[in-house]
Amino acid sequence: MELVEAIILAVLAASTPLLIAATGELVAERSGVLNLGVEGMMIVGAACGFAGAWLTGSILIGALLGILAGTLMSLVFALMALGLAVNQVATGLALTILGVGLSGLIGAGFVGERITPAVHLAIPGLTNVPLIGRVLFGENGFVYFSIALIVAVWWFLYRTRAGLILRACGDNHVSAHALGYPVLRIRTFAVMFGGACAGLAGAYLPLAYTPFFIPGMTAGRGWIALALVVFSSWRPGRLVVGAYLFGAVTILQLHAQGWGVGIPSQFMSALPYLATVIVLVLLSRARTGGSTAPAALGTVFVPDR
Amino acid sequence: MQLVLEKRAERSDTIALVSPLIAIGLTIVTMVILFAILGKNPLLALHAYFIAPLTDGYSLQEIAVKATPLVMIAIGLSLCYLANAWNIGAEGQFLIGAVAGSWIAVKTQGTDAGAWVLPAMLGLAAASGALYALIPAICKVKFGASEILTSLMLVYVADLFLDYLVRGPWRDPHGFNFPTTAEFDPVATVPLLIEGGRLHLGSIIALLVVAAAAILLGRTIKGFEIRVVGAAPRAARFGGFNANQLIILTFAVSGALAGLAGIIEVAGPVGHLQPGISPGYGFTAIIVAFLGRLNPLGILIAGLFLALTFIGGEQAQIAMKIPLDVTKVFQGILLFYVLACDSLILYRFRLEFPNRQVARGAG
């Protein structure tokens, strides 16, 4: 029982940054923008988030600073890919390269420092219920927020007019433009939302997952979040399933290392990355009937006047 | 008043020529600001970055040594990008090439194996790099899986595999538990061009690769196909060019070149296999490819320039305590400016005054 609860808690903790980052990217991609810079925005969010929390002693300020950093990074992307109509793949790569450098620069002074990580909820009585108590009532704020966020995004995309317009931009920007919708402005907001989420997801790592900052601590999570969006077929519901499945793979390999399975630890560590490749192949294969991706995803749009 | 982007009637050749220079200029201006923020004298910092490495023979050789893997990888990547195939996992192919070539070096260690060792290492490294690059290419062609994500995921896998080998089966028993293989035998080492210097045979190979790519792109049908498939996919289909076949081909070639660069780095300047053999060559090569306008000669120049930033970064760290990460920031900003300036080849800005006349008429 104790072990099951521990594993569920660990899976939730490992999945949360993936879920937050992928939620943001899902919105950006539904508007038609492929931002490959998630990893870069996350790592800058991690560095700024830790710096904020360490300097002020407040996890909340750290998280807000992470969000701000991610949003600023995404604005650079928007300026390039939307304002200057630059190839989105190349711009996203540039954002990641820049982000890795910037985070090293920002975080250099904080390596080796520790903070008190985000507190976990504690409701007397409820949190102590065996098995589900800590899972449901003993998480930190990030975990609850990530779930609220994906529900809100689902509601926004499928139950509001603004969400419909955003999806229209992603499926056919020429028509959306002809109908008078400001395609580039809508996409800018979607990209900024993606950046804010990536920044928060990055900040989660040093603020709640490990109480310290190390360079490169995102370790490819931004890329896995991108793969998750593909995995989800651009649907919020499946995104939740995917994020928790990937979190489970991560935890499985960590536990397997602990149990002393006779497989070298590096092979186990490679598991989440290999799983990503395999899942991408299987899914793309199952989908030969027609792509579920937003039709205008990754294409350049320059409005004619 | 509003600044709007509009498509040019035809591409601007003037801007195509000067855009990399504008990009470098803008990057340097940005770096001056960054140095000032870091509290360093910008002029001294720029001198340490861009002038000092050019003033002594040792640094000049070191620039060529660093440019060697960058140019080789970037040439391969440029073929992919021209064909609109996004290989961003060159770092992984580099590492796998290094591992595969090292296998021969490790297995022949201390035996009286002859002069065949080094050529065999180079060949195996190129073949392994190509095979490793074929994984994302085949996943793309057969199953439609995004080659961007799969090729990148395989970088982490390659990194962990190398880590396993040098901490496990290949660790030097006399290496005080450091994660490294023993120093390679002389027959398994890339020969130096100047005795006692740094410059090695790999730089010559890189030059040959540049020449071969220039011939491929400029003088052969295959090169023409690659360019057409990327620039005008519809026209290429009508022309009967097989885009999938070109994805496979360009990935294989770029993987082979990255693998070759990997073993040359290990059997050359490094001398043994260990983690951290690459300061991100595979990713920096992406910048080199774009800065060089996906053109072989351009890539050669761009590779030397980015190698200069690596060496300059090291010197600036030693002389002025400027963090090494500044080099990465510099490279990232440079790529942004390159892409932005490239946009002006196809587009131009126009100032629009949407409401002025209306307002006048009403007044």
Features:
heterodimer; A: 305 residues; mainly alpha; ABC transporter involved in vitamin B12 uptake, BtuC; B: 363 residues; 14 helices; 71% helix; 3% strand
Set down the secondary structure blueprint.
The complex is a heterodimer of chains A (305) and B (363).
Chain A (H helix, E strand, L loop, with lengths): L1 H29 L7 H19 L2 H25 L4 H20 L25 H5 L3 H19 L1 H11 L1 H6 L4 H27 L11 H11 L4 H23 L6 H5 L1 H16 L19
Chain B lengths: L1 E6 L5 H25 L4 H10 L5 H26 L7 H18 L9 H27 L3 H21 L33 H19 L1 H11 L1 H6 L4 H28 L10 H11 L4 H25 L4 H22 E6 L3 H7 L1
Antiparallel strand pairs in B: 1-2
Helix pairs in contact in B: 1-2, 1-13, 2-12, 3-7, 3-8, 3-10, 3-11, 3-12, 4-5, 4-6, 4-10, 4-11, 5-6, 5-10, 7-8, 7-12, 11-12, 11-13, 12-13
Secondary-structure-based class of chain B equals: mainly alpha
**What portion of residues of chain A is helical?**
over 70%
Uncertain regions of chain B: pLDDT < 50 for 5+ in a row? 357-363
Largest interface: A-B, 50 and 52 residues
Shape, principal axes of CA atoms of chain B: globular
Question: Termini distance of chain A?
Answer: 65 Å
CATH class of chain B, named Mainly Alpha
- Tell me the total number of β-strands of chain A: 0
Biggest sheet statistics of chain B:
2 strands, antiparallel
Q: Strand share of the residues of chain A?
A: under 5%
- Biggest sheet layout of chain A: none
CATH architecture verdict of chain A:
Orthogonal Bundle
CATH homologous superfamily caption of chain A: ABC transporter involved in vitamin B12 uptake, BtuC
Count of DSSP-assigned helices of chain B: 14
Count of beta strands of chain B: 2
Mean pLDDT over the full residue set of chain A: 89
